[in-house]
Amino acid sequence: MKLNTSKMMFIYVIFMTTLISLSSNNWLTIWIMMETALFMLIPLMSKNKINDQSMKYFIIQSTSSYILIFSILWNSLNETNLNSLMTLISLMIKIGMPPFHTWKPMMMSNLGWTECLILSTLIKIPPMVLINSLIDLKMLILPLTMTLMVGSISGINQLNLKKLMAYSSIFNLTWMTSSFLLSKKISLTFMIIYSMLNLKTMFFFKLNNLIYTNQMMHMPLKMKLVMNLNLLSISGLPPLSGFFPKWIILNELIKISIILPSIMVITSVISMFVYIQVNSFSFSNFYVKKKNNKIFWMKNLSAINLIILIAVINLWVY
């Protein structure tokens, strides 16, 4: 099909812009790559015609690009350092970092799983490279802490799986930014493992046509196990594969600062609790059918969540 061929071409160009931005040292080249990725993602969002989501995304991204160019030109004219608040704000808007994150869950809830995957992984890398090259760690501590808080707490009681993955993406922004600030080897390790876990999870959701958590009730036990292990791996539960890159980041980051790694561990436990809620919902909750009016009602076994949370804290501590 013609649409499938063009779709593959757009994804390939986005992938190439990510690789070029990773290998470039020039901010102008990275900015061009960001704009190229933006124009490649809009047709994927809009499919056959322009819709609300593609227009919203274009307006948000173009506004952040204007602010970025203006801040760089302003700093160049005044011969000051590019490490400015305006530059940071523009890049925060571009990747959906709190407090400029509200567009991301809203937009991802109305997109397909393929577009959600690209928005959660490849699109975030060029702005991350710019943050690494332009912004100092001291200026980043407050936004990164806010990102951890918002990403972990907002996912609680979230029934929409696309919004849940959006908040998971926001939460992992801090880990990704920290990995880029430490070294390129650590950042590539984290990005590859995180992208593969997201690919597996979102492809699973797409294959089974899942949008809400209550749809997992009728799945076979084997499929539930696969999905729940993927989700827990994204959250960084030891000894799953998602834990090891986070462990490496914590080991390196604790040499620079003690505050940020401590908040990372605490919010990771909250993030795990969110995924454990999804797990207990799919495994432990049950429906009871009333004989008279045939209404289904749900009994939530929240005590199980608390017991598992204590076990998770023990795993983190010991």
TrEMBL record:
<protein>
    <recommendedName>
        <fullName>NADH-ubiquinone oxidoreductase chain 2</fullName>
        <ecNumber>7.1.1.2</ecNumber>
    </recommendedName>
</protein>
<feature type="domain" description="NADH:quinone oxidoreductase/Mrp antiporter transmembrane">
    <location>
        <begin position="24"/>
        <end position="271"/>
    </location>
</feature>
<dbReference type="InterPro" id="IPR050175">
    <property type="entry name" value="Complex_I_Subunit_2"/>
</dbReference>
<feature type="transmembrane region" description="Helical">
    <location>
        <begin position="225"/>
        <end position="244"/>
    </location>
</feature>
<keyword id="KW-0830">Ubiquinone</keyword>
<keyword id="KW-0999">Mitochondrion inner membrane</keyword>
<dbReference type="GO" id="GO:0006120">
    <property type="term" value="P:mitochondrial electron transport, NADH to ubiquinone"/>
</dbReference>
<dbReference type="Pfam" id="PF00361">
    <property type="entry name" value="Proton_antipo_M"/>
</dbReference>
<dbReference type="InterPro" id="IPR001750">
    <property type="entry name" value="ND/Mrp_TM"/>
</dbReference>
<feature type="transmembrane region" description="Helical">
    <location>
        <begin position="57"/>
        <end position="76"/>
    </location>
</feature>
<dbReference type="GO" id="GO:0005743">
    <property type="term" value="C:mitochondrial inner membrane"/>
</dbReference>
<keyword id="KW-0520">NAD</keyword>
<dbReference type="InterPro" id="IPR003917">
    <property type="entry name" value="NADH_UbQ_OxRdtase_chain2"/>
</dbReference>
<keyword id="KW-0679">Respiratory chain</keyword>
<keyword id="KW-0813">Transport</keyword>
<feature type="transmembrane region" description="Helical">
    <location>
        <begin position="188"/>
        <end position="205"/>
    </location>
</feature>
<keyword id="KW-1278">Translocase</keyword>
<feature type="transmembrane region" description="Helical">
    <location>
        <begin position="256"/>
        <end position="276"/>
    </location>
</feature>
<feature type="transmembrane region" description="Helical">
    <location>
        <begin position="297"/>
        <end position="317"/>
    </location>
</feature>
<dbReference type="GO" id="GO:0008137">
    <property type="term" value="F:NADH dehydrogenase (ubiquinone) activity"/>
</dbReference>
<keyword id="KW-0496">Mitochondrion</keyword>
<comment type="function">
    <text>Core subunit of the mitochondrial membrane respiratory chain NADH dehydrogenase (Complex I) which catalyzes electron transfer from NADH through the respiratory chain, using ubiquinone as an electron acceptor. Essential for the catalytic activity and assembly of complex I.</text>
</comment>
<keyword id="KW-0812">Transmembrane</keyword>
<feature type="transmembrane region" description="Helical">
    <location>
        <begin position="137"/>
        <end position="157"/>
    </location>
</feature>
<feature type="transmembrane region" description="Helical">
    <location>
        <begin position="82"/>
        <end position="100"/>
    </location>
</feature>
<keyword id="KW-0472">Membrane</keyword>
<keyword id="KW-0249">Electron transport</keyword>
<comment type="similarity">
    <text>Belongs to the complex I subunit 2 family.</text>
</comment>
<comment type="function">
    <text>Core subunit of the mitochondrial membrane respiratory chain NADH dehydrogenase (Complex I) that is believed to belong to the minimal assembly required for catalysis. Complex I functions in the transfer of electrons from NADH to the respiratory chain. The immediate electron acceptor for the enzyme is believed to be ubiquinone.</text>
</comment>
<keyword id="KW-1133">Transmembrane helix</keyword>
